[in-house]
Structure formats: C-alpha cells, structure tokens
Design brief:
The protein has helices at about 5, 20-25, 75-80, 105-110, 115-145, 145-160, and strands spanning about 30-35, 40, 50-55, 55-60, 65-70, 75, 90, 95-100. With about 170 residues, it is α+β, with helices and mostly antiparallel strands. The protein has a single domain (about 5-155), classed as Jelly Rolls (Sandwich).
Amino acid sequence: MVDSAALQKYSLFGGMLPEEIERIKPLLEYASFDEGETIMREGESNDRIQFILEGRVEVSRLGIRLVEFAEGDAFGEMELLDVMPSAATVKALVHTRVATISNHAIHEIYHLEIRTFALMIMNLARDLSRRLRHMDEVMLSGSGWQKSTAEAKQPAADDAKKTPPRNRGGA
C-alpha cells in the first residue's frame, strides 16, 4: 500500500486533504508488470487510471512511440472518462508497479464524497487539457506549419518597415 503523502504528488489528488486521500485509498488496486509486459493494449477495453509507483513505461499508438512515463506519472485517464477502448498501448520498459482507480471506484467516490469526486474530475480535466496542448505543440512544431505561417507573416512586416509609404498626393 502507498501512503497519502506519496499519492499527493499525482495530479489527480491535487488539492486534496490527507484525510480525503485516506478515504480513497481502500478503493485503489495494485499491479506489477515485468519488463516488456503489456499493461494496456490499444483497442482493448480499459476502465481505470494507473499511477506509476515505480518503473517506466512506453506509450505507443499504431506502433509509433508517443511518450515515455515514469514514477509520478499516470495514464489511462481518457478511457476512465469516455469508456472507449484504449487509445494506445502501454508497455513496461522495466519492472513497473502501478496503483489504479477504476471507473467503478470513481462512481463510489461520487456517492461517498461529492467534493472529492468534483476535485478528481477537475484534476482529470486539467491533465487532459495539458496533454492536449502538449500534443498540439508537438504536432505543429513537427509539421512545419507553425514555421511557414510565421515566415509568411514575417516578410510582409519587414517590407512595411523598409519601404516608405507612397505619397498619394501627387508630388
């Protein structure tokens, strides 16, 4: 079992009091995965968010490596909220231990303590927003779109500075 102070470093538990975390702890489940073992498989059902207690994992989609997560990171939040199949495959890069909270446990928290539930959902939304912003940046920087747009605007601004305005008064 993991202590409340250790859970507070995960963004899902941000803003929670230690006693609120203590009430959630019985709903946590734990699992261990060996190096190379698949934790989640793209396209398969997943109803839980997983918190890496120790180890490292690789997240991939369509066989393309997206990101690596380590202790202190979490994954599976999309499937927890939208109840769709896993969007990516997650594999352990080294021996990895995780704590999980299932969709069912989140539902229990809703009935036990609405304030804690609301805080968790807000924290999940913030995490997803941060990841979405990050992926936008990655896609834009990798596509050249951002650069070409900046370049397209730059010469016009520079030309306006260099070329004096035309005198329309007929001098």
